[in-house]
Amino acid sequence: MTGTTPIIDSASDAERWRLVLARDARADGQFVYAVQTTGVYCRPSCPARRPKRANVNFYTNAYSAELAGYRPCKRCCPAAAITRDDQTVIAVCQTLQGALERLQRLPSAAQLAAEAGLSVSQLQRLFTAALGITINQYAQALRSQQVQQALAAGSAITDAIAAAGYSSTGHFYQKATSELGMPARRYQRQGQAMTIEFAITDTTLGALLVARSDVGICAIALGDNPQVLATELRQRFAGARRVTPSEEFNRQLQQVVALVEQPGARSITLPLDIRGTAFQRRVWQALQSIKPGQTVHYSELAQRIGAPTAARAVANACGANTLAIAIPCHRVVRQDGSLSGYRWGVERKRELLKREADTD
Ligand SMILES: [Zn+2]
User: Fold this and answer.
1) CATH number assigned to the domain covering 10-81
2) 53 alpha carbon to ligand 1 midpoint, in Å?
3) pLDDT for 354
4) Which of 76, 93, 218, 329 is catalytic?
5) Which candidate in 42, 46, 93, 318 is catalytic?
């Protein structure tokens, strides 16, 4: 599945799954669940047989599930809430995804607009308002995702480039550094024999997992269950070789623990291994400029990165952050002052903000 990242908030995922098992109709409209093995997504109350938990992803709405490539279930019709504009954007994304999968030349913006019955500028506006990036940037992100998958699977670099439809290797190498965040050769070396040091320790906010690649800290996660944190890390870096933590890593671990205990007292100076799309990295960079003790709204953050209509896409990028506290996505709140979700549990978000306020 390609497209947007599912909202992963492990604390509330357990709650969502409970609602799905209970077929609780009060949860309809709050989220949908998607089944990887069938490619179908459903309302929580759907009468269909329940899938295995491991095959389920949650999305905040039908729109996000469709962008990720899922089809609506024919029994519970979860797509009813999707607007016409949403449908247009979804159709563009699906056309681009389909062309890439079939290794065809990507249609131009003019072709996509003609198909949608809109002018190019109308379609661009609609698309950018929904996703926060232009059609061209979206196509590039899809390509780069495909390259990353191919490289991680061990294809030769030139095969991966050809598979992603890049016109020339020179063009690819130029793009690769900005989109993968590092040169392709290095990425492939990491995909095959990347080494990871990691440790899980206890903090006053629960279990803390910190992992480091040879580039820098690549995961900071909080949770109730150390086993779950370790499993998530293993899935995310499936090809990596785990090595015994070094002295240096243990010192860095202590710095992260200090950051958890006193998030307002210091800013992180450790090297970070940040992996994400160009748009996600823009959002994360803006997050790092928010001072401890301050909060911003999603719409303010969207303005700061020069995409004022992309609050929804900004919220998705915050939800995709994998470096808790170091990239301070906990400092983003809703317009009405409510905390909104947090990948590592909304109670932890509340506590982090409280600790920062107390430090002032
Ligand atoms: Zn259904």
Assistant:
1) 3.40.10.10
2) 15
3) 92
4) 329
5) 42
Structure confidence at residue 5 (pLDDT): 37
Please tell me the CATH code under which domain 84-191 is placed. 1.10.10.60
Taking only the tens place, the pLDDT of each residue in 270-296 is: 888 887 777 788 888 899 889 888 999
Question: 357 alpha carbon to ligand 1 midpoint, in Å?
Answer: 44
The two tokens of residue 68 are 């990720």
> Is the pTM value of this prediction over 0.70?
no
User: In sequence order, what E strands does the chain have?
Assistant: 32-35, 40-42, 56-59, 71-72, 195-203, 206-212, 217-223, 241-242, 296-297, 332-333
Active site residue 93: no
* Residue pair 348/308 in contact by the 8 Å Cβ criterion: no
pLDDT tens string 132-154: 678 887 787 777 766 666 555 55
**Domain limits, the chain:** 10-81, 84-191, 194-360
198 touches 208 (CB < 8 A): no
Ligand 1 centroid, distance to 72 Cα (angstroms): 7
Question: Measured between alpha carbons, how far is 43 from 30 in angstroms, rounded to an integer?
Answer: 9
Find the 93 Cα to ligand 1 centroid distance in Å: 23
Cα(34) to ligand 1 centroid in Å equals: 9
- The residue-averaged pLDDT of 325-342 equals 86
Asked, colleague to colleague, whether 10-81 and 194-360 share their fold, the answer is: no
Let me know if 46 is a catalytic residue: no
Give the architecture (CATH level 2) of 194-360.
Orthogonal Bundle (1.10)
Element (H, E) at 240: none
